[in-house]
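Anyone opening a protein record will find just a pair of labelled lines. With that in mind, the following record should read easily:
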Amino acid sequence: MSNENRHKLNPICWASINGGCRGELTKEHVISASVLKIIGNIRVGKERDEYKTFGTGSYVLKRLCEHHNSELSRYDDEARKFFSALTTIGDVLKEVSRPNNLSEQREFTIGKLHLERWFAKTFMNMVLFNTTVFKPENLPFYVTPQSIINQLYNGSLFKPPFGLYLIKPGNPIVPENEEGFKIFESNNVNLIKADTGIRSEPYNIPLLLHMNFTGVHLAGVFNATPLQDKQAKDSFLKPTIDLLNERASQRFSEISIQKRWSDNEAGYNAKIKFV
């Protein structure tokens, strides 16, 4: 069967423009089930909308074929390891004291490339979820994530300004007590439809997925439109990138977390190293 025919069999698979669709459309959690099993319920929302609470028994999509869904499982595994490390660290940070002056050092190793791609996959899931649940009138038919698909399935690398950022301590994008995932959009963007040359009405274009969990803030910036990277950067990404350049870094190799207990000299030192 040709890739063209497979594409016709699965017109709703959001990765079908890459070709190679096989099997039926499968159910997938917006936030990976393996992650939800570790972190429990988590809040998910858009910048100006109310949060919704996600758990292992709620909110699934049916927008990837069996083949394209299974290809992403390796990224789910890395995200599970990452959130398992954060949960372990978070449990220690909640301790009010440590007996017998007990000190501890922990180190976790995470594949940065796979985690970055998990963020890209989750970003796309949330974009699709928003069109289904929030039903915004301003998310048009031309959302075509070819660049995201290239990174997820063809081994391409995200080129700056796209990819994963670590928000610097003390200058968060969202309040410290707002734990969860949030989509940020650019406002009132006019795009030109490729096949007609007609300029669109102003739209809000999703471009950033922010995560705050156990005090760690990460942000993934991705291009969900047909625009080439430079066009996207020039047209609707600049305010977001300027903000991230002030408050975040793409060139991070580790996250260090420390805690000291006031009633003794015991301490906790944890590092998440990205390789």
